[in-house]
Amino acid sequence: MLTELPHHVAALLERHQRRCRTMADQIAKDHGSIHAYRSGLQAEIITAPGVPLLDEFYRLYQTVFTLDDEREPFEGFSQVLAFNGDKTIQSEFGPFIETVITLRDLQTKELVGAANPVFYAYPKQKEDFGFDASCQLNFILVRDELRGLGLGNVLLQRIEAELAIFARKQCQGSRFFVTCEQNNPSRMTSAEIVADAEAALIDPNDRMRWWRRRGFKRLDFPYVQPPLSATQDACGYLDYYVRFGDEGPSGPKTLATSVLREHLRRFFFVSVGKFAVNMDENREWRSVRDFLSARENVAIF
Q: Looking at domain 7-299, does it have CATH number 3.10.450.50?
């Protein structure tokens, strides 16, 4: 494991942090405070393909996700957003809705941040699962020079507010959890850590600490994400994190495998596989499915 970043990478991150501090000072001066700036941002939600906002979002997305192996092609977003209106898929895997939530600076008219959550509801299993809904949070991104202003918090709060509305609409309840994948530096090679830091302009350890400070905790099971496309490989250095809504600062110590397995089934089949492959024959899905099927709960820490 790489214990510290090479000098040139550490210097790159320091220059970026100085740039962010300079931008923060200018924004506070122009708007009176960082809080006033955040309060003036406009949230817009994409739920279907073919809208101009999707093209605008993708231009921002490309500036943050610069590595080919980690970047979803534009067609991938269009495809999964189209699933929202597919009654056959919704019948087998729903109710669910995949969205892209964006933040716009109304003065500059530019997008400054975005997130890609997928909401799943469990109206038929709510009593067995103990939850009304869940969210797979694929990513939160903020324009490079605007990091440190709390825009990630704004997006996370909006996601959970929309998820609560979705849970009430679909299940007349408010019990939900949010999951996300996180790079685990202890499972990455030195080259992978350097590539990650150079592309994301953040130390992978600092990124993990950001999520942990916001209440996300790791689920204790062997998680591997299936390939995002036929030309990409499975990703084996990810851990799977969870945060619960309205559970207090400590939260549950375990999560039932029944709801986690169904949550992952929808995520893998719809968002990851997009029905381009037979996920029932995918070794990553079968490994996760079989592991969870042999247990009642997984630990959270």
A: no
